[in-house]
Specification:
Blueprint (H helix, E strand, L loop, with lengths): L6 E3 L11 H9 L5 E5 L3 H13 L3 E4 L19 E5 L11 E3 L3
Length: about 100
């Protein structure tokens, strides 16, 4: 994914783009990642991972801070949507780590 290239990321730790939405969500659900920036998600990439993140006390939000709505993803199209997953204990603060920039 190149989604992260469109954002200034205000995080002091290491940033990784591993190329798999499901894997990023699994890492966040285990607390091995503070958060994940997810661009152009599809429902099948998110379903199990979102359940894991929420079971672990985190959540997946749009950039306005609203929880993910699966009906918005069910058309099968790849929406121009960016989501942020956060691990338990980080809450909506993770949203503040991403600032959109024009590149």
């Amino acid at each position: 994914s190149r989604t992260h290239w469109r954002y200034e990321i205000l995080f002091e730790g290491k940033i990784r783009s591993l190329g798999s939405t499901a894997y990023h969500l699994a890492l966040v659900s285990r607390g091995m990642g503070v958060g994940a920036l997810l661009g152009r998600p599809r429902a099948w990439d998110l379903a199990a991972g979102v359940a894991l993140v929420r079971a672990g006390g985190g959540d997946v939000l749009d950039l306005e801070g609203r929880p993910l709505s699966f009906p918005d993803l069910m058309s099968g199209d790849s929406p121009e949507m960016t989501l942020v997953a956060h691990a338990a204990g980080y809450g909506r603060d993770v949203l503040e780590m991403f600032r959109k920039v024009e590149r």
